[in-house]
Design a protein that fits this description.
The chain is α+β, with helices and mostly antiparallel strands. About 60% of the residues lie in helices and about 10% in strands.
């Protein structure tokens, strides 16, 4: 149980000119975690002191980032099965006040629409066509053609707000819904255009042998158009990429999140936002271990 008077007393010491006092207070507030953020924000609003406000902002950011690291670590330790939750955690770094329930409710609505149309008698291709219709025609999700200029287009909450997203954001949405319906649709780490594949259920989920492990590929950035290995090979040649096995096979949900973070790092590197680059690299390390 947090003592409100103690918290407010600690916050009042944040303008102390003695650096040692400030560091001691900062450490205590950080240890108390996200429950003190409300009090910090309230104190910031009631002050005009720039140093005081700056220190509150830094501590709030520290607390929120520590919370993101903890959630991501727990996500990895739980098996990384819930792709949507992983994407929400990454979004919470940029948007601490993200409405998680609103996103989950939106997913459930789409999922229900698809579930009502799908039956076990349908082929994989027929099921995919239903997902495409519900997601892109009924709910109106589409590509953000200028995603290279916008970090926001990669975040799942922004996708729900605008109905437009980058290749990886749309792929995460698509795969999250499919997997929640027990459909074996996973990411494929194709550079410059993250796509999906529909796995052959007769094989293991992530077989090292790619022959016959994928029924077909799906491009959510192009309204879920379906294609085969030949088109992937052609794309690799056009983009002058090295012909790697990884560009044809399914990747795990953890690997999908790795690519999402690397995409964000590339964007912020280009825009010289070193703080965000360092923070995302820290999150990346959590996924690697």
């Amino acid at each position: 149980m947090i003592d409100e008077k103690e918290i407010k007393s600690l916050i009042n010491l944040l303008d102390d000119p003695d650096r040692n006092v400030f560091e001691a207070v900062r450490s205590k507030l950080n240890n108390l975690g996200t429950e003190v953020v409300h009090y910090l924000e309230e104190a910031w609003e009631n002050s005009l002191d720039e140093l005081f406000q700056s220190r509150i902002e830094n501590i709030t950011q520290d607390i929120q980032f520590n919370n993101i690291k903890l959630k991501l670590k727990q996500w990895v330790e739980s098996g990384s099965n819930d792709l949507l939750m992983g994407a929400i955690i990454i979004s919470q770094y940029q948007y601490p006040d993200i409405n998680k329930q609103e996103i989950e409710n939106g997913i459930e609505k789409i999922k229900k629409n698809i579930w009502l149309e799908i039956s076990t008698q349908l082929t994989a291709l027929e099921k995919t066509k239903i997902i495409n219709h519900i997601l892109f025609d009924v709910h109106g999700f589409s590509r953000n053609s200028s995603f290279h200029k916008s970090a926001q287009s990669h975040f799942i909450n922004h996708l729900f707000q605008t109905k437009k997203g980058s290749p990886i954001a749309l792929a995460i949405l698509y795969a999250s819904i499919a997997q929640s319906l027990d459909l074996p649709i996973y990411g494929v780490a194709l550079p410059k255009n993250f796509i999906l594949c529909y796995k052959d259920l007769s094989g293991s989920p992530f077989n090292e042998e790619i022959e016959n492990e994928v029924l077909f590929y799906i491009n959510p950035f192009n309204k879920g158009v379906v294609f085969g290995k030949k088109e992937v090979t052609q794309f690799i040649k056009q983009q002058k990429l090295e012909n790697k096995q990884a560009y044809f096979k399914a990747c795990s949900n953890k690997e999908t999140l790795v690519i999402l973070i690397k995409t964000l790092i590339e964007f912020y590197n280009y825009n010289s936002d070193h703080t965000k680059v360092n923070d995302y690299e820290t999150l990346l390390k959590i996924l690697y271990f």
